[in-house]
Write a structure and sequence with these properties.
This protein is an alpha+beta fold. It has helices at about 15-25, 30-40, 85-100, 105-120; strands at about 50, 60-65, 70-75. It is built from four helices and three strands; from the N terminus they run ααβββαα. The protein has a three-stranded antiparallel beta sheet with strand order 1-2-3, sandwiched between helices.
Length: about 140
């Protein structure tokens, strides 16, 4: 996978455990996230977003790297309704890219959408439910 898929990727979006598996070393700090992102770029990806939701603490730290590093910090949203967070974020970023945003703006908007969706999670049955996809974003007003 590393040799065949990653060089084709415009953006790779691993969570912390996935990043660790890709690079072969622990990814448990901001410095380790930077090192992991650099290693994934060396594998051929054009950009990397390491998602920190699997970390601990009251704050979630995500790291974007495309040659320049950008760190996003969010207050952790206490919810069990987290099913589909990675897919939701990737889809939101892909939609923004398809709408003509550059990767930086697409990542920023995708993360904002995910934060709003996490606040609107719901449980259609037993166990953790999905994030709430029916959220409005200010930049979508009038579209």
């Amino acid at each position: 996978m590393k040799e065949s898929l990653i060089p084709l990727a415009g953006l790779v979006t691993p969570n912390l455990p996935e990043a660790q598996r890709l690079v072969g070393f622990p990814v448990e700090s901001l410095e380790a996230m930077k090192a992991a992102a650099e290693r994934i770029l060396e594998m051929g990806a054009r950009s990397v977003l390491i998602k920190g939701g699997h970390g601990s603490g009251e704050e979630v730290t995500d790291l974007f790297h495309d040659g320049q590093v950008r760190v996003f910090r969010h207050k952790r949203i206490e919810t069990l309704d987290t099913h589909g967070t990675g897919c939701t974020l990737s889809a939101a970023i892909a939609a923004e890219l398809a709408a003509g945003c550059d990767v930086h703006e697409a990542v920023e908007r995708g993360l904002a959408y995910l934060q709003a969706a996490l606040q609107r999670g719901f449980r259609p049955g037993k166990g953790p439910g999905p994030v709430g996809h029916a959220v409005s974003m200010p930049w979508l007003e009038g579209h």
